[in-house]
């Protein structure tokens, strides 16, 4: 410390302590949802994961995995094609924890109710450490229902895909304790319009095909197997591509380059080329979209869960800062306007957590044969994916602003969260694709609308703003779906989905959150008595009751 004729010139004061050394799972709304949705017996496991997530060691893994992005090696020193991607050791540490905690495919093998709810809670907690490594975790989870429809492939691959062991390295599946799955759907000429795919699948007998073509976005290219779409003689089909062949040789999987992305830097997103690549048919020829639809639905739900996790991380960082930082004579958290901002962010985050945990509960109950829950999941997944992904970038930006200039510095962690924020809105179908998918469900699957309506009706009488908004939405839905003349539904799709999502969040909070939270959300989001920016909640709300539910982090 240097002094110049007076006091010290580098005395650090009025800075918050590091946000480490806490239990990320010490989260009132999350723990309540865990119990409510049927996995309360997994609370201690969640706390164990939460304590690791809040440790300095785990936080350093997330930082290092993003500061040292993966590196593509197309050839070895002798000129042999190897097509491998090297990851920083921190990436492998993150994946080891995630797979061991049951966040990949092992939920499907768990012989207990609530396995999918516990997994969702785990992603909400562990995702606050780092998001990129959750991509292979999510794809593995979502691949299991697809692979299990093909008995021979299921026998070969499901034991590894449902394992809780992370086993990196390209080897024959039977020699590995755990497997990870990826997906290769989109191509440069089609994007979300997968029916425009040009990759060809030529049958060679016994359900085997040879692929020739080029995929545009295939993340985690070091995974063991990939589900891809390709044009077979009978039309667009779903096929499984192993990275290593039964004789131990590499299947042609030529990685042309890795994407240089805005965020998600820890995760490799590749452009692979298939040239005589062995693949196995999953389902029937020409039924590729049908075969893959379960996978897409689950990865969309994971996009929503991951988004809620990122929102939670941003809220905790903002709250931690303002609880320790003083300005103009008092702590920031005691300033009325900052309290308004923080309470507004807290409402957004709690509504997101409550919604994704409810949908995860529907996955569990649908797996147990509940058709009503299956119908609810069909519609609610699209609503959650669309709306939460629209809200995350704005929320993270506002949370970053709570830290002022400190939030704009990499060491705070907020810049990484901000770069990550738009990702889930693009992955697994953009906002337009998801909004149109909700319209499709409304038009073709009346049971899904009935299940949604039952969920809103369960909150009837709990809040007048919610009741009034539901009355208007129900009228508008009936008019749109039963119009005598054709209605250009696409023009109103986004607004309709937004209203449906907000009402569903409001109904869940009215039923399950304290009045301070439910009333404020319904006034501000459903009743419209708030401005467009965060921090515009009207006077008269119980802000103390909202703020008390924000996780404290390190103190």
From TrEMBL:
Q: Does the keyword Oxidoreductase apply?
A: yes
InterPro entries the record matches: Acyl-CoA_dehydrogenase-like, Acyl-CoA_DH_CS, Acyl-CoA_Oxase/DH_mid-dom, AcylCo_DH-like_C, AcylCo_DH/oxidase_C, AcylCoA_DH/oxidase_NM_dom_sf, AidB_N
Region listing for Disordered, in residue ranges: 1-21
Cofactor(s) needed: FAD
The record ties this protein, via Pfam families, to: Acyl-CoA_dh_1, Acyl-CoA_dh_M, AidB_N
User: What highest taxon heads this organism's lineage?
Assistant: Bacteria
Q: Which residues form the Acyl-CoA oxidase/dehydrogenase middle domain?
A: 183-275
The Adaptive response protein AidB N-terminal domain covers 14-168
* Chain ranges of the Acyl-CoA dehydrogenase/oxidase C-terminal domain: 286-442
* Protein keywords: FAD, Flavoprotein, Oxidoreductase
Molecular function per GO:
acyl-CoA dehydrogenase activity
Which protein family is it in? Answer: Belongs to the acyl-CoA dehydrogenase family.
> Known PANTHER family for this protein?
ACYL-COA DEHYDROGENASE, ACYL-COA DEHYDROGENASE AIDB-RELATED
What name does UniProt use for this protein? Answer: Putative acyl-CoA dehydrogenase
Q: Which organism is it from?
A: Parafrankia irregularis
Query: Highest lineage ranks of the organism?
Result: Bacteria, Bacillati, Actinomycetota, Actinomycetes, Frankiales
């Amino acid at each position: 410390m240097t002094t110049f004729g007076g006091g010290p010139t580098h005395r650090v004061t009025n800075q918050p302590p590091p946000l480490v050394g806490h239990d990320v799972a010490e989260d009132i709304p999350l723990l309540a949802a865990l119990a409510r949705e049927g996995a309360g017996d997994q609370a201690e496991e969640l706390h164990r994961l939460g304590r690791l997530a809040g440790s300095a060691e785990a936080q350093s893994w997330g930082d290092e995995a993003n500061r040292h992005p993966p590196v593509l090696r197309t050839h070895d020193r002798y000129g042999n094609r190897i097509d491998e991607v090297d990851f920083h050791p921190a990436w492998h540490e993150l994946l080891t924890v995630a797979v061991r905690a049951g966040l990949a495919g092992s939920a499907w093998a768990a012989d207990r109710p609530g396995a999918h709810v516990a997994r969702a809670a785990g992603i909400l907690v562990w995702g606050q450490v780092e998001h990129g490594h959750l991509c292979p975790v999510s794809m593995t989870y979502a691949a299991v229902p697809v692979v299990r429809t093909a008995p021979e492939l299921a026998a070969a691959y499901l034991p590894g895909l449902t394992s809780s062991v992370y086993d990196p390295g390209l080897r024959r599946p039977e020699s590995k304790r755990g497997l990870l799955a990826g997906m290769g759907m989109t191509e440069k000429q089609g994007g979300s319009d997968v029916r425009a795919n040009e990759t060809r699948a030529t049958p060679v007998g016994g359900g085997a095909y040879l692929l020739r073509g080029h995929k545009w976005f295939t993340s985690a290219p070091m995974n063991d197997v990939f589900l891809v779409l390709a044009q077979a003689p009978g039309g667009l089909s779903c096929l499984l591509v192993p990275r290593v062949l039964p004789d131990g040789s590499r299947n042609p999987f030529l990685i042309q380059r890795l994407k240089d992305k805005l965020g998600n830097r820890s995760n490799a997103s590749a452009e692979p080329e298939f040239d005589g690549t062995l693949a196995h048919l999953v389902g029937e020829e020409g039924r590729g979209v049908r075969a893959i639809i379960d996978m897409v639905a689950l990865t969309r739900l994971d996009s929503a869960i991951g988004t809620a996790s990122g929102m939670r991380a941003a809220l905790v960082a903002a709250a931690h800062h303002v609880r320790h930082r003083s300005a103009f004579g008092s702590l920031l958290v005691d300033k009325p306007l900052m309290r308004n901002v923080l309470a507004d962010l807290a409402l957004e985050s709690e509504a997101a957590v409550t919604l994704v945990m409810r949908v995860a509960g529907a996955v569990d109950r649908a797996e147990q044969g509940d058709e009503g829950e299956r119908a609810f999941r069909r519609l609610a997944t699209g609503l959650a994916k669309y709306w939460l992904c629209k809200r995350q970038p704005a929320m993270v930006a506002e949370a970053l602003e709570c830290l002022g200039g400190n939030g704009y510095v990499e060491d705070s962690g907020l810049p990484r969260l901000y770069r990550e924020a738009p990702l889930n809105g693009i992955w697994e179908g953009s906002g337009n694709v998801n909004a149109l998918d909700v319209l499709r469900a409304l038009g073709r699957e009346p049971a899904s609308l009935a299940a949604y309506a039952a969920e809103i009706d369960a909150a009837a009488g709990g809040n007048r703003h919610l009741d009034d908004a539901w009355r208007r939405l129900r009228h508008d839905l009936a008019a749109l779906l039963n119009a005598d003349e054709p209605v250009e539904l696409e023009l109103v799709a986004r607004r309709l989905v937004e209203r449906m999502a907000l009402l569903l969040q409001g109904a869940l909070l009215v039923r399950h959150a304290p009045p301070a939270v439910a009333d404020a959300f319904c006034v501000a989001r459903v009743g419209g008595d708030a401005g467009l920016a965060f921090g515009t909640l009207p006077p008269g709300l119980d802000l103390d009751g909202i703020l008390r539910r924000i996780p404290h982090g390190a103190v």
